[in-house]
Amino acid sequence: MKKSIGVSSNLFPMPVLMIATYDEYEKVNVMNMAWGGICARNMVALNISEGHKTTKNMRLHGAFTLSVANVETMNASDYFGIVSGNDVEDKFERTGMHAVKSTRVDAPIVEEYPLTLECKVVEFQDTVYGLRVLGEIVNTLVDESVLAQDGTVDPSKLNALIFDTFQHGYYAVGEKVGQAWENGTEFM
């Protein structure tokens, strides 16, 4: 039997996305967020509030990178969600992580993240429901260590984190349990 728990934002899994931007002094800022994802073949949508330093930086530079946090970067990635760049000037430096400038967009690439989408801001949609930032993916960077032999990303090597909105935990993704567009054919 199902029990009603009312209106909630609980959905599982949620991605652990890392948004990297430059501020007005070209200083790296990284924010941890779960309210976003792919919304079209070459587009991402981020649901973010206006008060974030990341939002200000995206408005200033018209670009960001979007990375997937993994088990190896969990502590630093969590820190990026705990602390605001509005309050802590050396937020990125405290983690000991490293960044290089993208050659495609005006945003940093955090070297420790194995999967990064380089994005240019296409539109800020300020609605009654909040602010949504649409970004066009102009390139994807993948660390060779997470590639399968055929050149595609191997999720078991990526070791990506997902966020649990129910109990606020992180979980690692990796075990393949089926094949999309194949397992359901038994009902055809």
How would you concisely characterize the structure shown here?
With 188 residues, this protein is mostly beta strands. It has helices at 53-61, 74-82, 91-95, 155-158, and strands at residues 14-15, 17-22, 28-33, 36-40, 43-48, 63-68, 99-101, 108-110, 115-127, 130-142, 161-164, 169-172. The protein contains four helices and twelve strands.
Describe the structure.
With 188 residues, this protein is mainly beta. The chain contains four helices and twelve strands, in the order βββββαβααββββαββ. The strands form three sheets. A seven-stranded antiparallel sheet has the order 3-2-6-9-10-5-4. It has a three-stranded antiparallel sheet with strand order 1-11-12, with no helix packed on it. It has a two-stranded antiparallel ribbon with strand order 7-8. The longest helix is centred in the first third of the chain and has 9 residues, at 53-61. The protein is globular. The protein starts with 13 loop residues before the first strand and ends in a 16-residue tail after the last strand. The model has no long low-confidence stretch (mean pLDDT 95).
Share of residues in helices: 10-25%
Query: How would the global form be characterised?
Result: globular
The whole-angstrom Rg is 17 Å
- Helices and strands, in order, run as EEEEEHEHHEEEEHEE
Structural class: mainly beta
Task: Tell me the distance between the termini.
Answer: 30 Å
Instruction: Provide the spatial order of strands within the biggest beta sheet.
Output: 3-2-6-9-10-5-4
Largest sheet at a glance? 7 strands, antiparallel
The count of helical stretches stands at: 4
Which percent band covers the strand fraction?
35-45%
What is the number of beta strands?
12
**Mean pLDDT reading:** 95
